[in-house]
Amino acid sequence: MDDALNGQWSLILGVSAGMGRSAALALAAAGCNIAGVHIDTSGRQHEIDQLVDELRALGVRVEFFNANAASPSVREEVVAKLGKLTDGAGVRVLMHSLAFGSLVPLLPSPEQPGATAKQVDMTLNVMANSLIYWFQDLFAAGLLVEGSKVFAMTSAGTARFTSHYGPVSAAKAALESHVRQLAVEAAPHGISVNALRAGITLTESFRRIPGSDDLSERARLGNPHGRLTTPEDVAEALVLLSRARSSWITGNVIGVDGGEFLTV
Fold this sequence. Notes:
Helix content: 40-55%
Number of domains: 1
Mean pLDDT: 96
C-alpha cells in the first residue's frame, strides 16, 4: 500500500452518491480515513449505512455528517471535529463535489418562468462559493497544510450550452475561477488546487437535467473510448493525483473524460 495516503484523512463534500461515493471508496482502498458531508432523507439511511460499512471494512476510520455543507454552522462543526480526528495533522484530500443547484432556463417562456435571483444565488453559493469558505476555514484551522490536495468537480457545461443548465453553468465557471485563484494563493504553502472535469456520467444529479438521455447517448457515441465516463474513472484519477507529494500540478482544469471534450 502506498504510504502517501495510508493513515491520512480526506474530507469529501457530497460523499453519499456519484463521484463523492466512488472517491471515498477509492481513497479508503488506499488506506485513507474518510470524513464526509452529505444531505439525505431518512429514506436513504440504509444506503448511507451500507457505504459506511463498506468503507470501514477497508480498515479505515469513517465519520459522516448528514447536514447542509453550505451552512456556516455545519462547516464550523465539521472543521472542529476534523481538528480532533486528525489530531492536528491536517487533511490530505479535500473533494468538493456538491451537485445541488437550480436546473431552470434563464429566460421565461409560456411553459416555465425564468430563473429567479434566489435560484441563481443559491446555485452559485452551493456549487461554487462554498469551496472558498471551506478552504478558508480549513486553512485557518491548520488543516490544509503542505501536501494537501484540493479537488473541485466541474463540467464541460462551463463552455457549452445545455438547456436548463444556465445557473449551474455559471456556478461551474465561477468554481474554475476560484480554483485558479486559490491555487496561486495556496502555492507558497505547498497546497495544490485543481478542478476535475468529468465526462458525462450517469449520476443521480446528471439524470435530473432535462434532456439527459439525449446528452448521454450523444456522449457515448462520440467518446473515443466508446462508452461514458464512470464515477470510478474519476475516483481513480483523484487518487492518482492525491498520491503525488509534489504541489506542482495546480490551478488546472483536468479532463477525466476519455477524450469526450475533444470529440463531442
